[in-house]
Known about the structure:
By secondary structure, the chain is of the alpha/beta class. It has two domains: 21-119, no CATH class; 130-253, Nucleotidyltransferase, domain 5. 36% of the residues lie in helices and 14% in strands. It has a five-stranded mixed β-sheet. Helix 3 crosses helix 5. The protein starts with 20 loop residues before the first helix and ends with a helix.
Amino acid sequence: MSFDRIIYRLTDKRIPAATGIELVDDILDHAEFQEQFCNVRSEDKRSRKQIDCGAIMTTFIELLCMGKPDFEAVAEFQNDAAYYQTALHLTRGFPSAATLRQRMDEIGKTQREQLLKFNTHLLKSNHVEPTALKNGMIPLDMDVTPMDNSNTKKEGVSFTYKKFMGYAPMMAYIGKEGYLVNTELREGKQHCQNGTPDFLRQTMKLCRKITAKPVLVRLDSGNDMENKKAFAIELSMKWSNVIHLLTVRSFLNRK
């Protein structure tokens, strides 16, 4: 292996380690993310002015995009506060790890519907069109994704079908690209079909804000409902297009 074409240059210019977050912030800014949530107030009744919810969520989104899901990682922003505050368009600085944890917990309890609505707006404002399959239908993949939270005492952690302690959130992705369109945190012990019909109704409502094309819903065999045909007809009539439900088990039975 040759490195002859690599050129090394010394510079006295500052090179931030996470310049990619500017692209993420541009995408959020184009959809007016912080403006959408700036008026959402915290349940905390302290008199001093707080960092608004839009800035709180922007901070956490950027941490996730950097592969740092721990709240404590926000302290790293202080090492280059001027850059990060400018890149993220924050006017009141960064929250502490404790504040970020508390506020994100509040947001998760009260802003789920608004966040899902904004998610579809984010895709549309950036001119995203989910790619269809060869048959012209848009795939919508839904499945439970067990998360290992062994050796923790978090609320809702219980024994999953993967044989570890954790959560079993349901997630829905649209298009061949797999854009996340809906998600629901569930206890680990909850069966995948429990609550799925209502989750699918909500998901289809969100999908119709993204595309008007026919949708092919692909589910795990654990969601092989006895009234699947009637349910598909219900969705098709409500959303004025053909909705097909396909599970792994029903597909294998056709072989």
